Amino acid sequence: MDLDPEDVFKDEEDDPDNEFFQQSESSKEYVVYLVDASPKMFNTTCPGKDQKDEIHFHVSISCIAESLKTQIICRSYDEVAICFFNTREKKNLQDLNGVFVFNVAEREQLDRPTARLIKEFDCIEESFMREIGSQYGIVPGSRENSLYNALWVAQALLRKGSIKTADKRILLFTNEDDPFGSLQGAAKADMTRTTLQRAKDIQDLGISIELLPLIRLDEEFNVSVLYSDLIGLDSEDLAQFIPSAGQKLEDMKDQLRKRMFTKRIIRRITFHIVKGLSIQLNTYALIRPTVPGAITWLDSVTNRPLKIERSLICEDTGSLIQEPPKRFQPYRNENVKFSMDEISEIKRISTGHLRLLGFKPLCCLKDYHNLRPSTFVYPSDQEVVGSSCIFIALHRSMLRLKRFAVAFYGGSSRPQLVALVARDEITTAGGQMEPPGMHMIYLPYSDDIRDAEEIFPDTEDDAPRADKDQIQKAAALIKRIEMKDFSVFQFANPALQRHYAVLQALALEEDDIPETIDETVPDEEGLAS
Amino acid sequence: MARNKEKLVLLLDVGPSMHGVLPEVEKVCSMLVEKKLIFNKDDEVGVVVFGTEETNNELMDEVGGYENIVVLQDIKVVDGDLIDILKKLPRGTVDGDFLDAIVVGMDMLIKKYKGIYKGKKRLCLITNAIHPTKDSLEGSKEDQVGTLAVQMTAQGMKMESIVVRGILSQDANKRIMDENDRLLSIFSKKTRSRTVYVDSPISLLGALKTRRVTPVTVFRGHLELSQQMKIKVWVYKKTQEEKFPTLKKYSEKAPSTSKFATHQVMVDYEYKSVDDSSTVVPPEQRIKGYRYGPQVVPISDAERDAVKFKPEKGVKLLGFTDASNIIRHYYMKDVYLFIAEPGNTRAILAVSAIARAMKEMNKVAILRCVWRQGQQNVVVGVLTPNISQNNKIPDSFYFNVLPFIEDVREYQFPSFNSFPASWLPNEQQQMAADEFVQMLNLAPSGKEEALLPEFTPNPVLERFYHHLELKSKQPDAAVPPLDETLKRITEPDLELDFENKSVLDSLCKHFELKENSKLKKSARRLLPEKPSGSNGEDGNGNVSDARAVDSIGQEPVVKIEKIGDLTPVQDFEVMMTRRDNPEWVGKAIREMRDKILSLLTNSHGGDNYLVAVECIIALRKGCILEQEPGPYNNLMRYLYRYCQEKEISTFPKLLASMDVTLISKSEAVDSNFTDDEARRFLDKIKPEPKD
């Protein structure tokens, strides 16, 4: 690994760019995908678009495949393992029956996703029956418990690393709400007890178990049979948790996709509302540009990474400068020098907190009052009990009165005014579309706003304005080229898709680079009609 | 670039009714010149004050009249003296006549440049315009202003008027104010002038654009509505962050007395093989590698050029959609401005028609933009109408970038309704909050909107330029405190708070906050820290030192929150064992790392080395205990390189003698080093014997 000296000095909390765009290794996540491969997963379908039904197993596999592809781009430090249970064959270190850990060459079982993993996992369904096989692992008269075994294997996979530096999760895909349903009496009670105990032990180690239930059209997934105890849901979570029966496939996929990611807090901040009333907020980056990763220079002969050594050389004497140099600004015919301490002192004009200054009607927030992607804030009672209550009260007032809050955010990199805009929760069958909370929008200063529209005209005449007739014609045009169902993020970034398609092909040493589609090109024919 | 130079005359009202705001006028005008000295060194500026006891201007000498107007400074290239003049504006004794001042200013510009200079000529008037102007000898005042306006346009001059009103001016005669406003509005209508009204010291500081940026188009070409329908547009930036100036590195190697020394620093990069740091890899042998998961995939530039995404330049409409489909917080960037090609009436009309129709129908347009040929990506964004309020300015659009699928993290958050009832506000609490949101209003009707971004200057930049000016006179000048006026941007308005005291009190009464008893640390964190330059600098003393001393005495469990200079190892150990919040460990490690680096860099002749080694040993122990080898190992490798670069040999020797190795896999599983590799690091760190 190459070490950038600047990195050693960089305080994660001081660098907005860092917080904005990068994932640090210290916040990584270890995930075990635990997929039920019982025959029931193969013979239950849910209706998809165009009358194409999809079997539950396929839905699970495609969700995981999608997630791996996102992950290798956005969060490649995270490590994953893929594990099937209720399988005919077994493959795991504990040699337990009915559990198969899927892996590819040059990779540990729990490891960062690689190009090969993604590629081979993409076609796993072709070879699944032949090589892994589907078979019920819990049957009357046998003491085998495939669910128990699966949890055990997952726990063992997650033994790696400290819980302090990584989030550890088990994501369980199944369509069976009553895995011990086929058993009776003492055998059933016994298996239920040991399985729940195993789950509890896992959770006591700081590993979370999350259930991703697959739903049938005709039947509900009854969480309270076993899983509410297994994953430790209380009654309030329960109501929120259960997806309704008869869900459309697309909605179910949406929901699975959303639940596969954990929230990452970028910062905990203190929000001063008035003197003596300060609450705690967590901030989240819901929207940040994803960019191709940084370039690593390699030696083209050996393909080994190069390290970059930076040295400062005095232009006058040619000698090497050892100590961190001062900075200067030419001004009034001389060089005015600043030490780095002085510069950070100049920038420190406020505490690092968020300070409420007042409220304004929403119409005061103009389209041009924007500089960077917004940051989402959500209250936390973790340190200050009562934070959520005030936050919710203000949130409701702001929504009702159509006001936004103006606050000063005193971070050390760029202290600035922000608008806090309250948003109500929006949910659809596919789950939460917009979370409840406030969005922090970074406001420009007068220094940042330009008046380019005022450069012209040079004439004395008034600017031409469209008349009623012309406006009406424009209105007709707008109606003709209307996109009814436009949603903000319906396009994949074609440059990024292309970049990673190329990388994937080269990484796997394939000759052909797969075609990528640019979805952003307008449908010229459609418009012309 | 002669055309790019600006010739500016400041027309400043210094009459008695302006005295209250003159400190702000002095600040903003000197800042204007300070920035010109850096960014527009060839600009020329003259200064005229009016409302003075004395009279001193050429027009009075030539034609008489024009009393109480003094030309403080003839138009000249900006220099430091100009700042000194602007920092000490005279306090006038009579009510000034701003029309006379405008005439004097125009006369100066005309005489100086005699129609030869075709570049930017500008007048900048700062007044409260509450005093009557003199009647004109022939015709009405309106006619007189009309004549001036024609002349102004003919001479290619622009005028910017900042009218200071509201709480900043006393109760003035409304009839006179209205007349003055009407006269000023004639300039706005007939010339390329703009008039802004401000009523707070902050917005006075923000109203004058202190840095002149020549606008550059991002794109010129067609806005393609369809294959047949195209409008010629120019795209500019509407907002762009004015960054803190990038200061150059200063070398002190050359004697400061040397006249020819540049004191510049060159940054040199060397690419070396990881395995063999003695060989430098030449540019032609280097190849770019891109990360794909754990792999780094090498791609040569030629290969990449052949396969990379290459969209055609162009701005295409994807369609129109309801404005409500685009939520404001999806805006990803600073803002672009789309204007119709200047002078192209058809284009201006088309933009106007579409913008107005969009506004009426509450629609926005979705565009796909590739600004330049050869650009390697596309942006999809939202175009919103900007209906011009000024007859001289055509309608236009704003544009912002929207996220792609890859840019969105769909995190789920608990619904507020799912919270336990005790977390939700009750009816009284909700009422208190409603009243609070209603009353703490920054934009009450009939008053200027407070903290309007257009009029709110960046306090950090102001502080920098102020400090720069101080330092140019006194090199060791301390960083000045934040300007009192600008402080009001960072803190709640005391007056507004005072007016609404009962509302604020009621809010505090209705909501109770409790520290979470399980987390002792919160109380500390919520105590306000002192910003720099605030009163009571004593808060910045190194408190933890005092505490650490205490801790040896009586109380064993003192909450250490910072690693001090006296007993860094003990401070660190205490912090590491704090269990009230998991964040302490990270903080302790971070601070220890910084401490070690500062010990090393501030060491004179190795006097800090022993302490630094002790700190390193403590950090090592702590990192193994917490099973976090990363920070320690990274630091060590950095130190190794640091010592190598600086040719420090005593420190590595010391480390080697104390057997300080990297943390190996057997000590902490997350380590990337085997026992052997960790030990070998020690061999590496022993400096090779020099010849």
UniProtKB/TrEMBL annotation, chain A:
It is found in: Nucleus. Residues 1-21 are annotated as: Disordered. Residues 1-18 have a biased composition (Acidic residues). Residues 317-460 form the Ku domain. The keyword Metal-binding does not apply. Its main location: nucleus. One of its GO terms (biological process) is DNA recombination. Belongs to the ku70 family. This is ATP-dependent DNA helicase 2 subunit KU70 isoform X4. It comes from Durio zibethinus (Durian). The gene is LOC111275939.
UniProtKB/TrEMBL annotation, chain B:
It catalyses: ATP + H2O = ADP + phosphate + H(+). Signal peptide: none annotated. SUPFAM superfamilies: C-terminal domain of Ku80, SPOC domain-like, vWA-like. It is an enzyme of class 3 (hydrolase). GO terms for cellular component: Ku70:Ku80 complex. GO terms for biological process: DNA recombination; double-strand break repair via nonhomologous end joining; telomere maintenance. It holds the Pfam family Ku. It is found in: Nucleus. Residues 278-419 form the Ku domain. Keywords: ATP-binding, DNA damage, DNA recombination, DNA repair, DNA-binding, Helicase, Hydrolase, Nucleotide-binding, Nucleus. Its EC number is 3.6.4.12. Residues 522-548 are annotated as: Disordered. Its main location: nucleus. Coiled coil: none annotated. Residues 532-543 have a biased composition (Polar residues). GO terms for molecular function: ATP binding; damaged DNA binding; DNA helicase activity; double-stranded DNA binding; hydrolase activity; telomeric DNA binding. Single-stranded DNA-dependent ATP-dependent helicase. Belongs to the ku80 family. This is ATP-dependent DNA helicase 2 subunit KU80.
